Every structure is written in structure tokens, then in C-alpha cells.
Amino acid sequence: MNRHVEHHAEDADVLVGRAIQELRAHGERVTAGRRRILQLLAAHAEHLTADDVAARTDDDGVHRATVYRSLELFAATGIVAHRQLPGGATAYHLATSTHLHGHCVVCQKVIALPSDVFDDAADRMLRQRGFAFDPNRSSIMGTCDSCRAASSLSAEE
Amino acid sequence: MNRHVEHHAEDADVLVGRAIQELRAHGERVTAGRRRILQLLAAHAEHLTADDVAARTDDDGVHRATVYRSLELFAATGIVAHRQLPGGATAYHLATSTHLHGHCVVCQKVIALPSDVFDDAADRMLRQRGFAFDPNRSSIMGTCDSCRAASSLSAEE
DNA sequence: TTATGTGCAAACTGTTTGCGCGAAG
DNA sequence: CTTCGCGCAAACAGTTTGCACATAA
Fold first, then answer.
1. Are A59 and A109 within one domain?
2. Is B138 within 8 Å of A142 when comparing Cβ atoms?
3. What is the pLDDT of residue A156?
4. Domains held by chain A: number
5. Strand D lies under 7 A from the Cβ of residue A107
6. Rounded Cα–Cα distance for residues A23 and A37 (Å)
7. Which side of chain A, N or C, has fewer Cβ within a 10 Å radius?
8. Is the CB of A89 under 7 A from strand D?
9. CA-to-CA distance for B70 and B92, rounded, in angstroms?
10. Which of the nucleotides in strand C have any atom less than 7 Å away from a protein CB atom?
11. Nearest nucleotide relative to B69: CA against C1'
């Protein structure tokens, strides 16, 4: 019953495979360096700094610059999510399918919001207040695109 | 009826005054530079980069280093909130009393979460999906400190 | 074979720090 | 008067970029 609780080493290959497919689907080349970086990200499901990754790939002959370029590419293709850390560093992790529901208080429409948007906030809530945010069970209130446009016709700047 | 809609120049002095009191309350000195920086933050209720502030104070003889040191101090004393931008810069604004409710899915307890935690996320949702997040009307789901501790006794790592 | 990725080294942005002078309390 | 903040200039961390060579497709 607790068979699929193990998010450890075995799954990593699967995740890497999926990421590589995604990469090919975007017409990007699969190189040794990129594979290596994806392996690292898959292994450390948590956050890894670009610099962290660079440090670990250096031994394997993958250059810092390559790491930065690859991570940027992965982020652009949606393969990884990224997040800014205090101090200016950027943390990366494989993108998951997690998403959050935005609920428009005007038209009641529900909007799917991208997964990585709340990573940073979730992290800080956990650290500062011990609250473990669960995006999949949450929906947040606000105003959607069109209702926002509509309301700005009748009111304040 | 629309008298207090104006969040423009007039209020700024009040906000600065409040910030300065707060500063004194923390036993910190009030200098020309600090006053100037607070004025800037009060004037631009949105985000201002440390670098932005530095650029604008340079003319007034307030040095870059002073700006960084002051902003760091303000953040430490809770007078301003800060947020990391892509590219490594940090955006600052006067702290408000805005907060969000965290709802524990286990014990149903509601927890007040600090305001600035969501600045980043709100910004990205607005940009990426046109969704204007309203923290004051939202409560998000998750697990609180104690329930999290309790559940980790019976399950995964 | 050819377009694309890589290593290298140098530049760049944003931020931090040690020092002696100057001002706030 | 004494403690703390400031300007200055130099160092630092993280990241980006132009170029010639290497390699995936």
C-alpha cells in the first residue's frame, strides 16, 4: 500500500527520459551535458542552484557556461521550473504537473495557474510559519483578465 | 465618497512618518539618507529595485552603499518587504498589513500568513495569466505545523 | 555535412565590505 | 562626546556573452 511512496533513485531515470523526450519534442538536441544536468535535477527533487549543478558537473567535464545555458533552455521549454533565492541565485527543479486554481471573484470562472508560480511562496510559508502549502487542494481568489479589463473601464486609474 | 481613493503624493508623508517612528522604535538612527530612501519607497507604492533607489538618491548625495545598507536594515526591522526578481535584483516596498489565510486541511485551523510572501507569485500570475490575485479574499489549503509533525510520525521519511 | 551546442575566458550586473571621516543622539 | 552611519573604492557572487572548435542529427 505504500509502494509508490518512494520518490528515490529509481524514478530518476524515468523522469530524465520524460524530460529528454520533451526536449526532442521541442526540436532541441540531446547532448551528454544536458543529459547529465537533467539527471542531477531528477536526483535532487528539491531545489538545486545553477551554481550547485555547475559544481557537480564540473567533474564530468561539463562547463559552467553550459550549465547556465542548458538550465535557461530547460526553463524556456517548460522542462524545469526556476525560482529566485535571496542573494541572487536561481534554484531549478524538474517541472511537475502540479497546478493551482485561480477563482475569479467577478465571473466565478476558474483558471489553471502554472505550477512554479507558488514555489517561492510555499517555501517561505513553510520556513516562516510552518505551513505546508498544497497547491492541488487550493484555489485562490482574484480577478481574471477579462473582468479586470471590464472593471477598469468604470473606475480608478 | 471617493476621497480616500487617492494613494498619491499626499499620503507619502504619512507613510514616511510612520516608517520613521518604527525606525526609532527599533533604536535605529534617523538620517537624511534613510529619510530620503523611505520617501522614494513611499512615493512608488509598487516595486523599486535597490538599484532603482540608488540611481535616484545618487543626485541627492546618498551613496549606493548606503542605499543597500539601509534597505537591508529596513527589511530586517520589517519596515519594508522585499522580493527577488529574475536577474538577481531585489525589489523593495513599504510593508503593508496585508495578509493571507492559510487553512489547515487536517485540523481546520486558520493561520495568518505574512504579506510579502505572495508578492512574487501575485506578480507572476498577473503577468503570465492575467490573473490579479487578491490575498485578502483568499485562503489557501495546506497543513499546519503541528499537524505536519503529527502526520510525519506515522508515514514517509 | 551542417546547424547547433560547448569550452574558454573575459565582461557585466547586483550586492557586500573594511576603512576613516562625519553626524545623530 | 560617543556611538553609529556614511562615502569611497575595491572585492565578490552569480550570470552572460563572443568566439573557435566539436558533435548530434
1. no
2. yes
3. 43
4. 2
5. no
6. 13
7. N
8. yes
9. 11
10. 4-10, 13-18, 23-25
11. C16
- Domain stops at, among B94, B121, B145: B94
Whether CB of B21 is under 7 Å from strand C: the answer is no
**A125 C-beta neighbours (distance < 10 Å), count:** 23
Q: Name the closest residue (CA) to the C1' of nucleotide D15.
A: A68
In tens, the pLDDT along B115-149 reads 677 888 888 888 888 999 988 888 889 999 999 88
Q: Are A82 and A115 in contact (CB under 8 A)?
A: no
Single residue among A43, A61, A94 that ends a domain in this structure: A94
Instruction: Say yes or no: A55 and A72 in one domain.
Output: yes
The whole domain housing A48 covers: 3-94
**Through-space separation of residue B55 CA and nucleotide D6 C1' in angstroms:** 17
Looking at the structure, tell me whether residues A9 and A70 fall in a common domain.
yes
Give the sign of the dihedral formed by CA B84, CA B87, CA B89, CA B95.
Answer: negative
Residue A144: which of B5, B130, B145 has the nearest Cβ? B130
Q: Is the CB of B35 under 7 A from strand C?
A: no
| 3-state DSSP helix/strand/coil % of chain B, to nearest 5 | 50, 20, 30
